[in-house]
Amino acid sequence: MSFNIDNLVRENIKKLVPYSSARDEFSGDAKVFLDANENSLGSPLTKWYNRYPDPHQQQIKQVLSTIKGIAPEHIFLGNGSDECIDLLFRSFCNPGKDNVIICPPTYGMYEVSANINDIAIRKAPLLENFELDLIHIEQLADANTKLIWICSPNNPTGNSFNRADIEMVLNNFKGIVVIDEAYINFARQKTFIQELVDYPNLVVLQTFSKAWGLAGLRLGMAFASAAIIEILNKVKPPYNINQATQELALKALEEVGQVNDMITELVDMRIALAEVLSTIPTVEKVFPSDANFLLVKIKDARKLYDFLLTKGIVVRDRSNVKLCEECLRITIGTEQENTDLVDAIAQWLNITTSA
Ligand SMILES: *Cc1c(COP(=O)(O)O)cnc(C)c1O
Question: What are the Aminotransferase class I/classII large domain coordinates in residue numbering (predicted)?
């Protein structure tokens, strides 16, 4: 059975006539723009902010196309990956009828977005070694399973999944496989973007929020077949990426070298912090990480979390999450922040062992 995107798209989306913006109906050069009810006098800020932004973000896609080695028609940009996630639900999943598969513990937005869209969630928890449970995934998939969400490297466990396992899902599942690569720049694994030619059912998500250091701008990327990208474009709000974000992202894209330096530095500090943490007596395990954070299993995780707060240090408490019992998720900070963290944990040890 071959993959046919038409069988997956919601009927109402297939029939949808998308909103045609002023910038869609005319995008050439003109002297006078009186077509979009903008403020012709200007703005209190930089003068061009009175104009609507490019609804298709063509300049950014052009640059990304070179960096990622994929044509612009395979690129979609969202107001954060979170918008891409929501658009995938809205485009492919019929509320109250369809379902998706997630592999917890994983990124919380898949479930929240499913709930908002009234899509049933089926859970195939990771195995004890944090790898995909392929047999369980296969058992859960039925004719109404539209999406399988695979976060690799995974949040909060930090590991990349076995590449052959992901390929197994891509080869056998008849719906869409979404691989969320938010942390791919910190990983030893390579991206699945180059695999798009082989898999018409693949969507790869990446983001400017992590390695690029631009969480505040809200810019996420989806890479997929031209057919899937076309559907996302139809469903998205016309001007989903604002002018300021587009300009700043373009500037950032000129600084790939600086971003690569930060990635190297963060990975080095991740390795160093993992080493230091693993020498702490109450640390039971520092899980291997392909991301910019460490999942750390530690005695009395919640109490340590509270103590760190009193020192002004906030980490993520994952100790109530299945398979992450007694675990904290710690983002790699600056050199100084990492030192402060280790010092605070040492203080905690002194207090608890001398009591
Ligand atoms: C941080 C993160 C994102 C990023 O979401 P944005 O909306 O782009 O900021 C996406 N997926 C995962 C798994 C993340 O941890």
Answer: 49-345
Q: What is the mean pLDDT of residues 260-286?
A: 97
The runs of H, that is alpha helices, within the chain are 11-15, 22-25, 58-68, 81-92, 109-116, 134-140, 163-172, 226-235, 243-253, 256-278, 301-310, 335-354
Counting ligand 1 atoms within 8 A of each CB, the residue from 207, 212, 290 with the most, and so the one to mutate, is 207
CATH match for 257-354 among 3.40.1350.10, 3.40.50.620, 3.90.550.10, 3.90.1150.10: 3.90.1150.10
pLDDT digits (tens, 9 = 90+) for 104-131: 999 999 999 999 999 999 999 999 999 9
CA distance 333 to 151: 22
Q: From the CA of 111, how far away is ligand 1's center (Å)?
A: 14
pLDDT digits over 215-255, tens only?
999 999 999 999 999 999 999 999 999 999 999 999 999 99
In this structure, the residues whose C-beta lies within 6 A of any atom of ligand 1 are 80-82, 107, 151, 155, 180, 182, 207, 209-210, 215, 220
* Domain residue ranges of the chain, discontinuous segments joined by +: 5-254, 257-354
For ligand 1, atom 3, which residue shows the shortest CA distance? 182
* Nearest residue (CA) to ligand 1, atom 15: 155
How would CATH label the architecture of 5-254? 3-Layer(aba) Sandwich (3.40)
